[in-house]
Design a protein that fits this description.
Blueprint (H helix, E strand, L loop, with lengths): L2 E5 L2 E3 L5 E8 L7 E7 L6 E7 L3 E4 L7 E6 L4 E6 L8 E8 L4 E3 L3 E5 L2
Parallel strand pairs: 2-11
Antiparallel strand pairs: 1-3, 3-8, 4-5, 4-9, 5-6, 7-8, 9-10, 9-11
């Protein structure tokens, strides 16, 4: 009965912005470490951003200063605001929720940055 649903992906120009959403049901996101991963064809899955312990966040070096992870407790949703997008940000983006005992994955949302 746990479900993570990503949305907000699409096609944008370099330098543009997108805001991804990860809507959770069956879990309370405040009780989990929430991770955004991405994977491009032929490449390893990459951890992009993390929010944990209420407010602690961390980011991959490649996205620092451009991406922001946040959480809306009322909507039980985690967001990834992506600004100044680059072609190398093109990937399938996945939401992941983890605690000591369980890990859950969303279905992914595609982000394409191209002119």
């Amino acid at each position: 009965q746990v479900q993570l649903v990503e949305s907000g992906g699409g096609v944008v120009q370099p330098g543009g912005s997108l805001k991804l959403s990860c809507a959770a049901s069956g879990i309370i996101v405040s009780a989990y470490t929430i991770n955004w991963y991405r994977q491009a064809p032929g490449k390893q899955r990459e951890l992009v951003a993390v929010i944990a312990s209420g407010t602690w966040t961390n980011y991959a070096d490649s996205v620092k200063g451009r991406f922001t992870i946040s959480r809306d407790y009322g909507k039980n949703t985690v967001y990834l605001q992506m600004n100044s997008l680059k072609p190398e940000d093109t990937a399938m983006y996945y939401c992941n929720a983890a605690d000591t005992y369980n890990t859950f994955w969303g279905q992914g949302t595609q982000v394409t940055v191209s002119s």
